[in-house]
């Protein structure tokens, strides 16, 4: 998957190499949660009982790898600062493919103008509420306060990858980032 390839390479370049046997865990989970990132162990949990398709698993892995990347590069305070969590959830919803047009149509959510931003905001709030015992108002306030900065933080993709083709281009661009400067 080009999304995961790019994120794994970015993590490695940031000094946080990921090992499949150490940093991924498949478990049965409660409710309808598909996955999570455990910052204490730097481990991505995939909820095997709630993931039924490869495409869904790819999105979950990408979403959680974005959290791992944020944890590595930004030293996110996941438990004490809800704005940090909100920012990472915004980035994960924006960059993972969670809010592609096809996924939204599958959820029976339609809209054109500003729909991607609305989806990202709603999914970030939903994710915060799933992992923290805060009020909806607190989650909404945190998301709204950091939305613009975090929505526009496209690292390591450099663009919002709306498809696998976009993700492949972003990965190719990421691999070639330092070539220009190296040739000067």
TrEMBL record:
InterPro entries: Peptidase_M76_ATP23. One of its GO terms (biological process) is mitochondrial protein processing. GO terms for cellular component: mitochondrion. Its EC number is 3.4.24.-. GO terms for molecular function: metal ion binding; metalloendopeptidase activity. Keywords: Hydrolase, Metal-binding, Metalloprotease, Protease. Belongs to the peptidase M76 family. PANTHER family: MITOCHONDRIAL INNER MEMBRANE PROTEASE, MITOCHONDRIAL INNER MEMBRANE PROTEASE ATP23 HOMOLOG. This is Mitochondrial inner membrane protease ATP23. It comes from Colius striatus.
